[in-house]
Amino acid sequence: MAFEGLSSRLQEITRKIRGKARITESDLKEMLREVKLALLEADVNYKIVKEFVATIGEKALGQDVLKSLTPGQQVIKIVKDELVELLGGTESRINFTPNPPTVIMMVGLQGSGKTTTSGKLANLLRKQGKNPLLVACDVYRPAAIQQLQVVGKQLNIPVFANENSKDVVHIAKQAMSTAMSKLNDIIILDTAGRLHIDEALMDELKNLKSNIKPHEILLVVDSMTGQDAVNVAEKFNEALGIDGVVLTKLDGDTRGGAALSVKKVTGKPIKFAATGEKLSDIEVFHPDRMAQRILGMGDILSVIEKAEEAFDIEEAEKLEKQFKKKELDLDDYLMQLRQVKKMGSFSSLLKMIPGMNQIKDLKVDDKEFVKIEAIICSMTKKEKRDTRLLNASRRQRIAKGSGTTIQDINKFIKSFEMTQKMMKKMQNNKGGMKKLLNGIDENTLKNFKI
């Protein structure tokens, strides 16, 4: 996951300093040295690291932090505030034109994930009430148009393409006319990329920009390329004048140096981050939330937003009624499990909860959810309603049908029965969402090692 190495190092540093009743200037220098090494290991630009550490040192010494009652906490606050500033300060969103359609031009090198990201962004904007149109402007890469069409079909988002033309300006103008007639208020241009930055690529993009006058130019960069991503961002910005950056494959880069460097180097904000392979795995980039994740402070706001987006209101109300009647059965449990799965991988959710990433022995395996689902689906309706019917022969049948073992069945049933007991205790608690989110209890984690 992104920032894994940096996060663990910084959390270790802050743990050491947090509880100290008194911090000497020597302690502070040692902490700053460790912060510097952690950032360099995360592939952050050296000049940025030097400036970042100097700023923290200056603020820590200049605010009488060493003489305060809680010096450790104040130093951590300074580190967090500077990290937020380094990541961009405040979130930066798309600037929609008051006279639709808003034209968003996606640029970047080949392999950065530009086409998939175009689809992800269209999907995200549709959830915000927009009506997007994807436009295939990559007329050189083999199967680029077909790839965008496949993405559009999966998302049920229209794609405009003209396979008979190589004139991208003409294609884009046709797409704008189509968007106006179809009432699409967002146009996303998936432009051509190259394996490297060259004059032909930039000339084509400049020509497209001058003729179409897009409202937003978003550069898609692969965060796993580290400092190369920052160099690419700098060159694209100098030649084209980008409005923002979309970081892709952020789930695969354990260092995260690109995210910490790109804003400072280009002066352009990171607007979105793609965090997985699913077409729903993209989110608005929040510098403050990302800083909190890096420092192990959690990101509860993002968890809540994911829950609100994923949970079906009618299903949630139905489950709440079942809880009140103390009638939670395995069908309800499975429904609840599927709702949680919509929020993303369980491992990514856990890392957003304060303190969870400090538990070293906590192993998360999302495959175990598939196992639980297979177990429940291998039961009869009567067995799902009443687990007391599950004798030895029934459990053996379920194990064969689900491709699991009798031990797996026993562990799961024990966990489920403990969940039922917990739900009964929570009967007087208000708030259906709390009950839903608490449904997968700590015993499920322990028993299934997830």
Task: Kindly describe this structure.
Strands 3-2-4-1-5-6-7-8 form an 8-stranded mixed β-sheet, with helices on both faces. The chain starts with a helix and ends with a helix. 39% of the residues are buried. It has 21 helices and 8 strands. It is α/β, with parallel strands linked by helices. The protein has helices spanning 4-18, 25-41, 46-62, 71-87, 114-127, 144-155, 168-182, 199-212, 227-240, 257-266, 287-294, 300-310, 313-324, 330-341, 346-350, 367-377, 381-385, 392-402, 406-425, 432-438, 442-448; strands at residues 102-107, 132-137, 159-160, 186-191, 216-222, 244-248, 270-274, 282-284. α6 links the parallel β2 and β3 (159-160). The chain folds into 3 domains: 4-87, Four Helix Bundle (Hemerythrin (Met), subunit A); 102-302, P-loop containing nucleotide triphosphate hydrolases (Rossmann fold), CATH 3.40.50.300; 311-448, 434 Repressor (Amino-terminal Domain). The chain is 56% helix and 9% strand. The chain is flat and about 75 Å long.
Task: Characterize the biggest β-sheet.
Answer: 8 strands, mixed
CATH-assigned homologous superfamily of the largest domain: P-loop containing nucleotide triphosphate hydrolases
Cα end-to-end separation: 17 Å
CA radius of gyration: 25 Å
Mean pLDDT: 78
Computed structural class: alpha/beta
**Number of domains as seen in the coordinates:** 3
Q: What is the CATH architecture annotation of the largest domain? A: 3-Layer(aba) Sandwich
Number of E-state strands: 8
Order the strands across the largest sheet as they lie in space.
3-2-4-1-5-6-7-8
| Percentage of residues in DSSP E strands | 5-15%
